[in-house]
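$ ./design --mode recover --in tokens.txt
reading tokens...
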């Protein structure tokens, strides 16, 4: 895995040598693969990219270049991907916000459902509700009471319409909260502001928050998974207090539409091999990720299902209120 600058240098060198386009196109991959991460470094999407990058590159026989391109809750990176040549040399890791961005961001230059090839939903990680240590609440009931008494309190998310924003909106609707939303370009800058006392609470991916919870720097209130997390067995699930409350962070591999069939099959096989590598599975598990590695059809269906499931909530709470 090499950085973007090194990749550009390699590409420039190839052009300087006068290699004909036909020669570069023979066999896939014929050059380093650019993997767009549409969020800031340090978050769950970036963690996923850095967990699979080297292994994917080894199986494909080319370096994988991670290109962090944050903005518009992932829509900036998705636009870049949509405009890329469909030859398998540009891919993206999509976050859950991909499913609902079209309800939030005006004039998207792509069709969310037809403008991409959803190759595989790779992993999920529970969302966890966390607060600063100086917020006087040790459980959900106490936190809700505190927030109802302090309507100027603020919460962060990894971006508008991300799972963290959706979960916070669900909590606000369920408990009548009027707190202020502060969107970030990923979970890492959110965490920095939470630790710095600039926001009061947040829903975020457990994979990012877990080390700081264990270090006692932030307080875990509840997880949004169907059951308690094995990583934090003493932290209750949200649905123990609010039935049906569940919306995890998911991350999947996406390509531009129109990949050649042989390229697509080679990519899918490489991804399958990586996601079933015991060392990769362990690394994901140690960081509170669950490996899924779904089929393309199942991934595309998940995107559409989440869009339909969250449309009313997004329009009622996120579009109209935030």
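writing sequence...
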């Amino acid at each position: 895995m090499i950085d973007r600058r090194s990749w550009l240098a390699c590409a420039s060198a190839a052009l300087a040598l006068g290699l004909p386009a036909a020669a570069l196109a023979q066999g896939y991959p014929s050059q380093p693969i650019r993997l767009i991460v549409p969020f800031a470094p340090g978050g769950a999407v970036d963690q996923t990219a850095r967990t699979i990058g080297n292994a994917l590159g080894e199986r494909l026989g080319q370096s994988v270049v991670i290109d962090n391109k944050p903005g518009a809750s992932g829509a900036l990176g998705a636009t870049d991907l949509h405009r890329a040549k469909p030859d398998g040399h540009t891919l993206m890791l999509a976050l859950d916000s991909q499913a609902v961005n079209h309800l939030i961001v005006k004039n998207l230059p792509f069709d969310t459902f037809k403008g991409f090839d959803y190759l595989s939903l790779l992993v999920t990680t529970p969302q966890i509700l966390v607060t600063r240590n100086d917020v006087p609440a040790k459980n959900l009931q106490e936190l809700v009471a505190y927030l109802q008494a302090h309507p100027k309190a603020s919460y962060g998310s990894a971006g508008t319409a991300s799972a963290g924003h959706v979960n916070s909106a669900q909590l606000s609707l369920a408990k009548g909260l009027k707190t202020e939303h502060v969107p970030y370009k990923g979970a890492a800058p959110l965490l920095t502001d939470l630790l710095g006392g600039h926001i009061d609470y947040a829903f975020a991916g457990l994979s990012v928050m877990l080390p700081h919870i264990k270090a006692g720097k932030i307080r875990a209130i509840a997880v949004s998974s169907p059951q308690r997390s094995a990583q934090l067995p003493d932290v209750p699930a949200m649905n123990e207090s609010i039935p049906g409350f569940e919306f995890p962070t998911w991350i999947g591999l996406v390509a531009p539409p129109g990949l050649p069939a042989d390229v697509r099959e080679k990519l899918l096989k490489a991804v399958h091999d990586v996601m079933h590598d015991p060392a990769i599975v362990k690394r994901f598990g140690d960081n509170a990720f669950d490996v899924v590695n779904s089929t393309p059809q199942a991934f595309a269906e998940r995107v559409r299902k989440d869009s339909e499931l969250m449309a009313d909530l997004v329009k009622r709470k996120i579009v109209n209120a935030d």
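exit 0
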